[in-house]
Design brief:
696 residues, 12 helices, globular, 7-stranded antiparallel β-sheet, single chain
Length: 696
Amino acid sequence: MTKGANVGLATLSEDVGSVMVSLGWSSTTGEGDADVSVLLLDGDGKVRSDVDFCFYNNPVAGNGSVQLLGKTPTADGSEDRISFDLDAVPQEIEKVVVAASRYAGSRFGDLDDLRLTLADSAGDGLVRFAVEGADEVSAVIFGELYRRSGEWKFRAVGQGYASGLAGLATDYGVDIDDDATEESPEAGPEAGPEPEPEAPDQPAAAGEAVPEPPAVVPAQSRGVRETAPAAPQAPAASRTPAVPEPGDPDPDLGPAPVPKPARRRPRTAKKKVTLPRTAKKSLADNDTWRSARLFPVSALKSDRERETRATSVVLSVMAQVPEFGRRLTAGFGAPAGRMETFTEVTLPHGESPRRPDGVVRVERAGKLWTALVETKTNGNALKPDQVQAYMDIAARRGYEAVITLSNDVALEGSPLVDVRIDRRRKHKVALWHLSWAEVVHQAQMLIRHEGVGNAAHAWLLQELLQYLQHENSGCHGFQNMGAAWVPVRRGIDDETLCQGDARALEVIENWERLVRQVCLRLGGELGQKVLPVQRARRGSDPSARRAELADHLCEQGRLGAEIRIEGTPGVLAITADLRTGKLRTSIEVPAVEPGYPLSRVKRLVRRLSEAPADLHIETLVDGQGVGPRGTLERLRPEPADILPKDGAQITGFRLSLFKGMGSGRGSAETGFIRSVDEAVDRFHAQVVAHVEAPAV
């Protein structure tokens, strides 16, 4: 594409519900680099708040619809990848700006081959845009994704900012930390006239220069904070008018040329290494032989040995596989840079020195980011006094974070460990939690789906995965519904459980942890984004929401959750009825295909030819809720049985499977956690995988 051109994504591919945008560059010295940032803008062209500014200290935005995946080395430079789940972008967001910035006085003129590429969810390249003329600027808007008539389009922008990240972010409404400055006061936007404001999507008149943002109060371009004082807002006239749509008439130039859709071509970039789905035939004489492993688990006999081994294994692989280390630390505010990891480090703390399980250090542009690591395995709980001591040590030594790693899953608004923070300290330390299930998920995504730089890295991740999934490693994720599970289940059976019971709230919290772990496990196996759906008002208190769900559990005796799987036509609902002891997994499929009602039903039955015979199908009727229903076994010879008798309009179908619920609180063969995992896996493999997503 050329600068100013735009194109609808749906005209290039059918798989654009999620796309991958890559920003790349090269350097003659091999040391040049830049930071990627993404801004989510509303209808006014501004961010709703600073959390809509996605950058290295905030790598996830838009409810998870935008994720910075970090840097990938190329033959002559590096490439930053950004994942966009366009179907999940909040409806208030009208435009997504993709930019990059340099720091410490560097300019983009020191880099070569500035480029943006866009690929669909299948990995096929759709768009390539080469940015030129960015020699004297320290920030560049490469392109933007925007909605037009319900469709996502891409525009090649290529606009530079001499004022760097601070000027770019301020222009779109982000508050900038201006208490420390590094850039020159004379820094400003590219030279050029400042025209009158124009309406969005209107072309500039012939001979006019595209306006650039005005100079702003100099700021520390790498110091964006949510709580910083607001910087002066740029005037409305400084906002850059959008480039015209293809085909829009211009009074002086005539119709703008319409770019042709990009042709699909073979991918010529170096292919990343992923492991084959089927293992090679073993050379062993018999099945009793076991493959030699880099990380053996047979000698582990105590919890202390498991913690020490697990910490060393994970931290060493993080340091040796940059993609993996970056994926685990990006969400904690760590920069992208050279990483080193350490174990059993002794740090002074009063009269008794402390020995955290590990230390992670990342060096970027001469600055160090440091985090202490505290690890627990085999279901052991974190000790508040230990974590508090590490927080105090980190604050005194100027470290940035303390990371806890255990089988438990942290919930929003409900920390696993309550720590005391000294507000008098100028240096603040962040406390983060990581579940072993998330570590496994990230390893699966890299070696099975997205790929890593070379075969050695893939082999290291495979060995790590083998270790974490071994029954003796103690790194199995959330495996216990808690001590309240059995009393709550019995209280529901004999109708003695009352609203406000603290045990019901504990069950709700553990149910949410289990659902989050199901999403991580299923997403790692499928290579797709799987997220829990929260039916709550934006900004609502998570504790109040869980208390309300606990009251519903006491009243109705049911646990419910919804998860959204990328590429499927609806959300997968899970219902655990504690009164009947049954699990229900279901999905609603919209009836969007043309044709007569009977033809729609027949097409659905043909799609489900491999589904279980006991699959329940319910007809969803406009204005009436649920219509006729029946099992797939009965509907195969008589599909007309689920047609509404009064000729009402069919809006969709609900597909459901039922399964017995485990009674135990753990993950054993008869445990509740095992039954939920099996129910979700069976429903996805035998039902959801055969239901096609509706065409765009």
